[in-house]
Input
Amino acid sequence: MVPLLEMRNITKTFPGVKALDKVSFSVHEGEIHGLVGENGAGKSTLMKVLSGVYPHGTYTGDILLRGELQAFRGINDSERAGIAIIYQELALVPEMTVYENIFLGHEIHRGLAIDWNETIKRADEMLRRVGLDVNPESKVKDLGVGKQQLVEIAKALHRDVKILIMDEPTAALNEEDSANLLNLLREQRNHGVTCILISHKLREVIEIADTVTVLRDGKTICTLDSKAGEVSEPVLIKHMVGREISNIYPPREHHPADEVVFEVRNWNAYHPQLERDILKDVHFNVRKGEIVGFAGLMGSGRTELALSLFGNPEGYHVSGEVFLHGKQMHFRHPKEAIKAGVAYMTEDRKGNGLILIQDVKQNITLANLREISRRGVMDNNAEIQVATEYKDSLNIRTPSIEQQVGNLSGGNQQKVCLGKWLFVKPDVLILDEPTRGIDVGAKYEIYTIMNRLVEEGMSIIMISSELPEILGMSDRVYIVSGGKIVGELPVEEATQEIIMDLATDY
Amino acid sequence: MFLKDLGQVLRKNIREYGMYIALFVIMAYFTVATDGIFISSRNISNLLNQTGYIAVLAVGMTLVIVIRHIDLSVGFLAGFLGAVAAIALEFWNLPVYVVIPMTLALGTLAGLITAYPVAQLGIPSFVASLAGWLIYRGALLLVTASTGTIIIQDEAFNAIGNGYIPDIFPNIGFLPKVHKLTLIIGLIGIILFIINAINSRKKKQAYHFEVLPMNIFIFQLVFVSVLIGLITWVLSGYNGLSWTVVIVLIVVALYHFVTTQTVLGRHIYAIGGNPEAAELSGISVKDLTFIVFGSMGMLSALSGILFASRLQSATTQAGTLFELDAIAAAYIGGVSAAGGVGKVTGSLIGALVYMSLTSGMNLMNVDIAYQYVVRGAVLAFAVIFDVATRKRV
Ligand SMILES: Nc1ncnc2c1ncn2[C@@H]1O[C@H](COP(=O)(O)OP(=O)(O)OP(=O)(O)O)[C@@H](O)[C@H]1O
Ligand SMILES: [Mg+2]
Output
């Protein structure tokens, strides 16, 4: 049988990087095809070649659809051929309504004017097809990430799609939304849509994919058939990383001291634009050398809590008490928090974490220029040394520390973010979804680093929506729901069920 | 081999070298079209002096655009402060060493006032500075209303825009009629440039960073040295370096240092690249906005001083359209409207390109109407070129 899609000997180079090296990849009609590999293996690049983001001529090799050679000059060409791609980063316009977004770039005209009634009607149909129950007239920014993801899919599906490509669609979703999305994929398959799914959540790949292709260092390692029982987590990991990893979480040997380093009492926050309370009477503490997990659903208020404590850059109206090393603190700007020894790594690396047009070294040092300067004048050598150190210790894959961060793969960008905050050497490090979009091998490395840091006396607050990660890494767990702390458990007593119960109770 | 290397380097760095090439082409063209009058000592000297008051504005504007703002008020602010300086000198009889710091301080204050609604209240800088444009225009008309043009008699003040640095040994027989101090300064400049280039190349190599191939590197050294040499030679054939050029060079050197070598510079570019990320990295966007607009105000005052001094008077029209010339110069010099990208040296070259066009077309007696069209076309071309070369990955 001729495969629906065949990519042959695809090679794509960027200055200094061979992102794809003679990659071959074929997908059969009606299957869900998983695409896995380490950060920087070339998954996103391969899909961008397929969808015409990198047009014909900028790569070598052939793309065949149903045996016919294709030469896409841009996204429009690939769309016409029935290929739709949903990128690693959401591409919706937050200020526009759901229906405007769905038909953005493909507006329904009657003459010169847009036929809004027809648009809304059709948008409604699409929303039903993806099982999303929202008013098409609501603005995208008012929806949670999970729902936004579904809007993206609705946007992709409104055209006659044959191949739907999704690049890490569940990275920012909680378990429930992820499960919904995977169900939706199955449904689409039954409608005859072929899907390509890129994900670092191997369990969901195993659960849903009919076939899995593994990339490593820009090369195809193998294609495995799920029905033939070839796919399992250890096998995938072995092919991805090139060696076996028996534990996903490194052994935990934390010895938190009794000394409380960071404490928050009666903490409230009011959001002046939304005109509502977003945090209510929050109490918690963190001890020296402890990893404290903050579990909860998306939108439960954990990020808002972290930001409000970290100098409150969003300008919430806050009240309550914050103690660092027993001393009461009033951080009015992130710089004061950083200076006092509190750091916050954002969950949104592209939005407010990194400066994409600057290079790796500038991003790593940005939050602590004081240490590599004298009387305000930069010491360029010291900067290079620091950046090289973090590049090596975090294993950031980049041709040079002078590479623009925007050119790195998603996972490697995340590592740059982490490096930046490690260089600040804080006493209290707040990590918001620290391993989002990171491959298994790199996760293990990051967990190991976290363990080392607490061993050295740092205190870590880890906000995570991945319960296994919370359970695998924390010493103590707070459960947040609706802007309140609804539970506190030592990790020995916590289970996924208990946490989910508490998190969804309110 | 050499040409092939050169072609490759040029193609790779076309964005950076593009405007130098453009400047070179424009100058060469006018030199031919005016039978060499353009490149004459006198004309080049005049050209540089005219560029001065736009160049200092363009330097400040670079930073404003880098942090994703704009300042439209600078032209009439310069005109107004020039008039204030004239009044202080002529009517209040203040000495020049009081007037200049006072004017610069007033400029800084004006910049901070423009920054206030922008930084504190989030008003778009286009609107805030448009208000400034109107206010300073009115203020300029007000202070010159009773007297009309104010003639400045102070010689020290007028020397800023018209004077030249003194010569050493003006009367020895060696190289008569040549300004020797200018030559010496040029020579020192060349030596410093070469030492600096070799050092930074060594450093880069030590870290295994990419450097230019050796032959191209030497070519670059020779090319720039010859260029500096030529310019100083041409200038020393007239009156030597003017005070305006000295001031511009100091301003550019200072801002170049701050933007490339200091924490403050890093913070400015970080804000331009991603203000939210900068804020979360502990950089106060608010404070930096004040600093950048404050510096813009100070440079506006400097521009006003240079202009008033050059004309030896303050006029009701002083500063008209300076802001747009400065913005054009910055964009020709490669500043990106998206923020976070742009060099002050680029803006200096941009200002030179822009003023060379004016000067050359004036020499050729081109009608003013066509001059605007040509300048507009060059601006459009420069920006299109910038965007087109940026896209290529
Ligand atoms: N525009 C670009 N310029 C230079 N290098 C690039 C560019 N885009 C990608 N690369 C490089 O190509 C390689 C493959 O990147 P790609 O984004 O395809 O990885 P990925 O498999 O999607 O990784 P991740 O799981 O982290 O998203 C990386 O080494 C990356 O640095
Ligand atoms: Mg990717």
Notes: The pocket of magnesium ion (ligand 2) is lined by residues A 43-44, 88, 167, 409-410 (CB under 6 Å). Chain B touches chain A through 26 residues (CB under 8 Å). Residues 84 and 219 of chain B are 49 Å apart (CA to CA).
